[in-house]
Amino acid sequence: MSAQKTTDKSDKIKGSIKEAIGKLVGDPKVEAEGKSQQKLLKSDVKPKATSKS
Questions:
Q1: Are 8 and 43 in contact (CB under 8 A)?
Q2: What is the enclosing helix (H) or strand (E) of 21?
Q3: Using CA of residue 37, residue 38, residue 42, residue 47, what is the dihedral sign?
Q4: Mean pLDDT by 10 residues, the chain (53 residues)
Q5: Which residue in 47, 38, 44, 31 sits closest to 10, CA to CA?
Q6: Nearest residue to 33 via CA among 45, 50, 16
Q7: 33 Cβ contact list (under 8 Å, min separation 6)
Q8: Distance between CA atoms of 15 and 19, rounded to whole angstroms?
């Protein structure tokens, strides 16, 4: 597994944990941070294809 995939997976897990903690303590800010952390994975950003003409 590449370092990028490992980092993305760990960030997703951290986001899930943060979201769960936010729900448990009733803090919508922490819950929202967890959700956004899960969505902002670097692997989701795809580079633009360049055409060679």
A1: yes
A2: helix 3-25
A3: negative
A4: 75 93 96 89 57 58
A5: 38
A6: 16
A7: 15, 18, 22
A8: 6
Q: How many residues does the chain have?
A: 53
Q: Give me the pLDDT at residue 43, please.
A: 53
Can you read off the two tokens belonging to residue 52?
Answer: 């060679």
Q: Which residue has the tokens 């590449």?
A: 2
Would you give the DSSP letter of residue 26? T
pLDDT at 1: 61
The overall pTM is greater than 0.70: no
Helix (H) or strand (E) holding 12: helix 3-25
pLDDT for 45 equals 52
